[in-house]
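This entry is retained here.
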Amino acid sequence: MTEDIQGMYKRLVALETEVANLREGYRIVNRRYSESLALLRELTDQAALASKKASLATQHALEATKQSAKAAKTAASEHAILAAEMSVEAATKAAAAAVESAAAAAAAAAAAAKAVAHDAEEIAAKSAAEAAQASHNAAELAAIAVRVANEVSANFRAQGKK
C-alpha cells in the first residue's frame, strides 16, 4: 500500500510538472501570437495608408493631366508648337504616374488582403476594405488620366496636320 501511495505521489508530481510546462508553453505561444497580431495590425494599417496615398497621387496626376491638356490647347491655338509638344509629353507622363499610383494602391490592397487571410480580425478586414476602395478609386482615376492624355495627344496631332 505504501508503494502504491508513493507511486501515486510520483505520478502526481509528474502531472504537476507537465501542467506547469504546458502553462509555460501556452504563455510563450500567447506572447508570440500577440506580437504577431500587433505586427500584422501595423502592416495592415500601413498598407491601407499606402493605398490611400497612392489614390491621392493618382488624383494629383489626373489634375496635372487636365492642366497639361489645357496648356496644349492654348499653345496649339497660339501656334506655339514647342509648348504644345511639351504639354503633350507632360500629360503622357502624368498619365503614366497615375497608372503607377494605381498599381501601388493595388499592391497595398493585396498586402492588406493577405493580412486578412492570415488573421480575420475586424480591424484588418476594415483596413483591407479601405485599401481595396482606394485601389479601385486609383484605377478609375488612372483610366481617366490616360484617356485625357490620349485626347490631348490626338488633338495635338490634329492641330499639327492643319
